[in-house]
Amino acid sequence: MTLDKALQILIGNQEDDKAEKFLHFLSDKLWELYNIYVMDKMKMADGELKWNLNIPNAKENIEYNQTVIMPQVNSDIFDNVELELVDAKGLDEDKHGLKLTVAPDGKSLAITGIPSLEAFRKDGAVAESTFELTLIYKFCGGIEMPEDRPTLEHKMPFVINQDPRKLWRNLPVDWENMPEPKYKNDDTQVEYVKVEALVDGTPQKDIVAASKRGRSHAQEGKPRDDHFRMEHMDNGWYIMAVADGAGSAKYSRQGSTIACDEAVSHCMSKLGQSKAFEDSISGYGNLQDSSDEEAVEQLGLKNMPDKFKITEQVDLKDYLYDGNAMRTLSGKKLHKKKNHLNAFKREYEGRYEYRRLCCSDRGDVWKFLDRWREEKGEEVEEHLDYEVRGIHEILKNCSLLNVRMSGVYIDGHLEAFTIGSYNPLEQMAVIHIEKANPEIRGLYQFINQQFLIEEFPEAVLINREDDLGLEGLRKAKLSYNPIDYARKYQVEQIW
Hints:
Elements: H1 3-11, H2 16-47, E1 58-59, E2 64-69, E3 82-89, H3 93-96, E4 98-102, E5 108-113, E6 130-140, E7 152-161, E8 188-193, E9 207-212, H4 215-220, E10 227-232, E11 238-243, H5 252-271, H6 275-285, H7 292-299, E12 308-312, E13 318-322, H8 323-328, H9 335-347, E14 352-357, H10 362-376, H11 383-396, E15 404-410, E16 413-423, E17 428-436, H12 443-455, E18 461-463, H13 471-478, E19 484-486, E20 489-493
Parallel strand pairs: 1-7, 17-18
Antiparallel strand pairs: 2-5, 3-6, 4-5, 6-7, 8-9, 10-11, 12-20, 13-18, 13-19, 14-15, 15-16, 16-17
Helix pairs in contact: 9-12, 10-11
């Protein structure tokens, strides 16, 4: 059918003016229906999107580099339809320290930079840390975007965790309005005791100490409640007492002062005639290479119950293992460990690498620790946070420490690491730290064995330290069949 024939059917024998008006009406109506059709199709495609982006929180002043992959349209309903990211807004490099970069193909968004909240800290107030990220996108392929709505928007929160150090204020103490007795003191206490050289010219140690008002007290404008006192006696004794003021007590700063004065005065009265005590210390110094248990026995402290109270610290005893057994995992008692080890080697054959670590590898270890700690979640034992901080300190100062470190990489990623040292006097390897991805079967057994084979082949004894009184850790250490324990004691002198 020709165009002329189609027009003839539509307008028939109507006059030109009337026919023209009819065609304009028909055109407007059809375009209106078409736009509704295009809009409905776009809404259907938009409804199929699953915005499960799970963008990790940024941490203030810590470098952030995250690539966010855009969601896909359900291909079962819409063939060849794709989402294309056009722009992203909500973070400014000058204000937030973060840059938003849309990939050329529109399929991902890069968020990079060093986050900062300084621009949002006004008059000492806590900075806003949750921001709205706006993703501007369109559909391409089998869908046409309406002329009056060429793009769509998706809004989502983006969080920059505050630097804890920025949350604290330093408010002065309002002494004028404080009721009596005020027991006024300074925010800091600094003292220096100069000790003169002996008659023969032998120099002596001076004493210096300082106390500063804590952050929580500075935050609320409260006084420093702690105190210290130090003295040097003519017979050579140095005495220092430190008291932590109980902030909840009304006159705790005066209480800490009294406590220090009383403690120092008591020590001075007792140490004025201290030859017997000094002889005991000299005897103990001769046992510095002995274990706690040997020292207690050789000094005969258990035979002087009226002078010394001896208490074994059961939760702090170190677990000792046979070095050869730990390197070979031989014997029935370690059979399960060897099974786990062999399972790891089979499953990850060709994908793992045991590597000796040095100080320059600390970045890999830090990334592993961040991932390991996050997977533990918030509801964990407090000791884990202290452990992570301790590991960071070791890594920052590893060039000054006589430690050996190793790690296991799988597919190029660090999945386990360990830190130990060697005591040649006892031919003992001491394993200070051992962390591994718990989801990988046999990884703990593998790094445990390889570390001893590669770094401590000469070790007769293996010391895997204490269990902190934690039942799970105790079971793990017992599962390796310890041959003995390095026991520890608390010795209290009875005055």
